[in-house]
Amino acid sequence: MKKLLISAVAAIALMAAAPLAMADAPKQGGQATITFNNDLTTLDPQVGYDWQNWSVIKSIFDGLMDYKPGTTELEPDLAESYTVSDDGLTYTFKLRDGVKFHNGRPMTSADVKYSFERAVNPATQSPGGGYFGMIAGYDDVAGGKATTLSGIETPDDKTVIFKLTRPDATFLHLMAINFGYVVPKEEVEKAGADWGKKPVGTGAFKFVEWVPGQSIKLERNKDYYKANTPYLDGITFEFGQDPTVAVLRLKKGEIDIVGDGIPPAQFAELMADAANKDLIAEGDQLHTGYVTMNVTQPPFDNVKVRQAVNMAINKDRIVRLINNRAAPASQALPPAMPGYNPDNKGYAYDPEGAKKLLAEAGVGEITTELYVMNVDPNPRIAQAIQQDLAAVGIKAEIRSLAQAEVIAAGGAGKAPMIWSGGMAWIADFPDPANFYYGILGCAGAVEGGWNWSRYCNKALDERATKADAMVKDDQKDARIAEWKAVFDDVLKDAPWAPIFNEKRFTYHSERLGGDPALFTDPIHIPVNYDYIYAKDAQ
Fold first, then answer.
1. CB atoms near residue 446 (< 10 Å)
2. Which of 35, 146, 324, 420 could form a disulfide with 140 if both were Cys (CB 3.0 to 4.6 A apart)?
3. Closest CA to 481 of 463, 495, 455
4. What gap in Å lies between CA 223 and CA 100, rounded to an integer?
């Protein structure tokens, strides 16, 4: 997913006895205020597709599955339980009793079926509808030939059966993604075009109001099926707030979370202040920042040139440029992702070795272009990459453009090189498949796709498909081992130069409590609002 400017974070271990360990006993009550620079675009779960939308959507709606708070460990949510057929083609979910929409109506299996059909229906224009392509009947609905998915059956109000056309080990993760969150048909139809501004879900918080450009207010759902959840009585999201100003307001006790993260110019000062020791939560992220090289165009159609680029870039220096808010990357997958190979150290910084490879490639003098999003610190990072490439004989002209222009150039296959900063891939769900098909697989190497390197290795695609057909519990280790091997081979082909894996830092007020993992949650980005609490609640 292109969750812009900020990222998801890594898995953090849970204690079996409780969701997370709290320093103090959580209290019921109180309010929290979160600021953002930009307003949201929508609260429609079938449409929202960036980190900022998700941070609010995930507190208003629920899916059949979710992740344990602060982790990437799947668990049933609206589903009480589920079973999977031996061939991996049939999933049967039993729904919980007592789940109600915010309008008071009980949720049923018909609502689940409607929500998935709405996501796939082209009229919805959902960016995530394609994720459900393995459900029988998908092609007919997506192609406008039908409005119902033949692969979803509802034999009674509490049972939903999904029939797939192929086994897919990521299916349960897809049941936790927002595109499949359950919505009430009558409310969607009543709101019409305004549905994204008037959401009604089953989640921990109920929507109250949205003043465009100013604020969104939520209140506690007192009928939420999870007892004693959420802790806060209400949340206000304020917009149009510069992060630098937000930091000052937090210090004054006027707000509780700087939603956009700590501004680069204030990072070193805030981290060095002992008073902030317990107020800044830090977490690794399911993110990789990388340089793409268009493998269909000279000189990057030569693998030795691509490997030389990997060896030419001083990743440690780039990490220092961003105040050490990341760790140097060795491969496409981030360390927290299943399938990451800790034994694969990637390409070491070796300018002389890079020169040798370029000489072996016999490409002569190289002149190229490096596209970059024109928002700090990305131009500075591009300049550092430019200097490193120049040192080995590659002259790269920087094209610093608006985000949309860089994305368009990448999708059109016109950009020889792109620094992905501000647009780098962040996992939609914590599985290696999500880091492959759209950005490294053949499916993404198309006009308008996100595979900006246009790398297409059909043999690896076949191995990836076979890996995802391993759906049985006793095949999990073998599946991840195969994915590890796939990404090792991607690294050999070097369509990217992985640069760093970002870390997430969330600055919050002293009055908010909760495990630090909740403030850098991998799924409820950037904060799991359902489980944080106000220490001063009465």
1. 13
2. 146
3. 463
4. 7
Rounded to two decimals, the pTM is 0.87
Query: What average pLDDT does the segment 477-494 reach?
Result: 98
Helix (H) / strand (E) element for 500: namely strand 496-507
C-alpha pair distances (Å), 13 with each of 20, 21, 70, 73: 9, 11, 8, 9
Q: How many CB atoms lie within 10 A of CB 194?
A: 9
What pLDDT was estimated at residue 504? 87
d(CA 177, CA 146): 24
- Residue 121 neighbours by CB distance under 10 Å: 19
pLDDT of residue 24: 65
CA distance 410 to 400: 13
Sequence-ordered list of residues with C-beta below 8 angstroms from that of 484, at least 6 positions apart, any chain = 339, 340, 341, 432
Q: How far apart are CA 125 and CA 472, in angstroms?
A: 33
170 sits in the region (left: phi over 0; alpha: psi -120 to 50; else beta) called: alpha
**Of the candidates 494, 459, 487, 488, the residue with the CA atom closest to the CA atom of residue 361:** 494
How many secondary structure helices (H) and strands (E) does the chain include?
A: 14, 20
Helix (H) or strand (E) holding 407: helix 403-412
Instruction: Kindly calculate the radius of gyration of the chain based on its CA atoms and give it in whole angstroms.
Output: 23
Q: Which residues pair with 67 in a beta bridge?
A: 74
Query: Is residue 80 over pLDDT 90?
Result: yes
Question: What one-character-per-residue DSSP string does 134-152 give?
Answer: TBTTHHHHHTTS-SS-TTE
Q: Where are the beta strands (DSSP E) in 221-358?
A: 234-238, 257-258, 280-284, 289-293, 326-328
Q: Using alpha carbons, list the distances in angstroms from residue 317 to 198, 200, 394, 437, 499.
A: 47, 48, 19, 31, 10
State the average pLDDT over residues 63-76. 94
The length of the chain, given as a count of residues: 538
Q: By the 8 A CB rule, do 363 and 302 touch? A: yes
Q: Where are the beta strands (DSSP E) in 132-242?
A: 152-156, 159-163, 205-211, 215-220, 234-238
State the chain's mean pLDDT as an integer: 92
Q: At residue 3, does pLDDT exceed 60?
A: no
Interval 368-377: pLDDT, tens: 999 999 988 8
List Cβ neighbours of 387 (8 Å cut-off, separation of 6 or more). none
